[in-house]
Specification:
About 65% of the residues lie in helices and about 0% in strands. It has about 120 residues and is mainly alpha-helical.
Length: about 120
């Protein structure tokens, strides 16, 4: 059981490292959120499974932690992505010439058209 637990610990650590690499390498915030959420969630759950196999007395605690991670990670990432989209951050597109997406789009002034626009 120790060997299987160690393999899950190694698998979890690998996915956590790949998630960190994905956060650094992705072109925009939406891809970074996706890389962070999917791989880090899988890595954390694999790591926790390894901990539970190495220390069988901790199953209840590990199960609570895994449930919390599986519930909060997707909800948190989708909430952040939705807030970014509503704030006007546009997703990166391949036809943008590789330029990074701007932080936020310029919203028109509430006072109406300016004197330079006429």
């Amino acid at each position: 059981m120790r060997l299987i637990g160690d393999l899950f610990l190694l698998l979890g650590a690998t996915f956590l490292a790949l998630g960190a690499l994905g956060i650094v390498r992705m072109p925009d915030v939406y891809n970074r959120i996706q890389a962070g959420t999917k791989s880090v969630t899988l890595g954390a759950v694999s790591f926790l499974l390894g901990v539970a196999l190495v220390h069988p007395a901790w199953w209840a605690k590990v199960l609570c932690i895994a449930g919390f991670i599986l519930f909060t990670s997707p909800v948190g990432s989708s909430t952040i992505a939705r807030a970014l989209f509503q704030a006007g951050v546009r997703p990166w597109r391949a036809d943008d010439g590789g330029a990074p997406a701007p932080a936020a789009r310029q919203l028109p002034d509430a006072s109406g058209p300016s004197a330079t626009e006429s």
